[in-house]
Specification:
This protein has 103 residues and is mostly helical. Helix content is 42%, strand content 8%. The protein has a domain of 63 residues. The protein contains four helices and two strands, in the order H-E-H-H-H-E. The protein has a two-stranded antiparallel sheet with strand order 1-2. The radius of gyration is 16 Å and the shape is globular.
Length: 103
């Protein structure tokens, strides 16, 4: 690389890392209602309608919604700052909300 060249970047999808991410996020959202990063903040994923834990289908839908939210220049994730219920696009698509249970 000389002084006038710039590094090139490419965006690619690796199916193995995609599957690992799906299992990690959707699996933990379904089984625990939270990922490891949510534990210190006592945050949980719940159904927006009734506050109940989410099932596997909703967890998988939320994962793909999160991927879409990041794919569109992360606007779907930034949306949380402007939304009244603090829902990103992925939450709206999956019918979920992030809550901090009392107690």
């Amino acid at each position: 690389m000389n002084a006038f060249s710039s590094p090139s970047y490419s965006i690619s999808f690796n199916p193995v890392s995609g599957l690992v991410a799906l299992v990690y996020f959707a699996g933990l959202w379904w089984v625990r209602g939270q990922t490891v990063g949510m534990i210190p903040f006592n945050l949980r994923i719940r159904r927006a309608v009734d506050g109940q834990p989410i099932g596997p289908g909703r967890a998988i839908g939320r994962f793909f919604g999160l991927a879409l939210s990041f794919f569109v220049f992360a606007i779907g994730v930034i949306w949380v700052a402007a939304d009244g219920r603090k829902q990103g696009w992925h939450d709206k698509l999956a019918g979920t909300v992030v809550v901090r249970p009392s107690g």
